[in-house]
Each structure stands twice: as structure tokens, then as C-alpha cells.
Amino acid sequence: MGGRPGEAGKAINSRAFLVLICGSGTTGDHGLVTEGKYPNARALGLTIPTNSTVDPATVPIFHAVYGWCLLDHQGNVTPLPDYKPEVVA
After folding, report:
1. Global pTM?
2. pLDDT tens-digit readout, 9-27
């Protein structure tokens, strides 16, 4: 389990900030994050820009079970069935 980069000071131990990602560090979602493929990782909600002041509970994330959703600070999931992410070039 790792934290979504950014917002490190305020919510680092919040359930909205911590996500379990698959892969080895160079493959899967973990690879997207650690290999610097940030446009893809950010598009999936796996990272938040460094030094961001955004609340991670407001950042949609693509979840393997729920699809697009929000993760709140208490560990609840709010599905976003109509959410359409921005296209990242």
C-alpha cells in the first residue's frame, strides 16, 4: 500500500490518500506511478501533483471493483457512474 503522491502533510494517513496498487514497481499500476508515467497515473487518480493543496477525497480514482469513485477519509467509497475523466495527451 502506498500513498498518492502530493498532499503529504495533511492527509498522509487518511483512507482517501492510501491506495493499494498492483504490479511489481515497474509493471501494472505500481509501474505507472514509479516509472514516472504520471499523465496516465494522474488520469487514473493514482497520483496527486506534488505540493498540491487538493483534498485527496475529492480526486476521482479508477477502482478495480467500483470503477470511477471517490474514497473518503473514513474508508467509504462513493461510486461515480457518470464520471468522464479528462483526456490526457
Report:
1. 0.73
2. 555 678 888 888 888 888 8
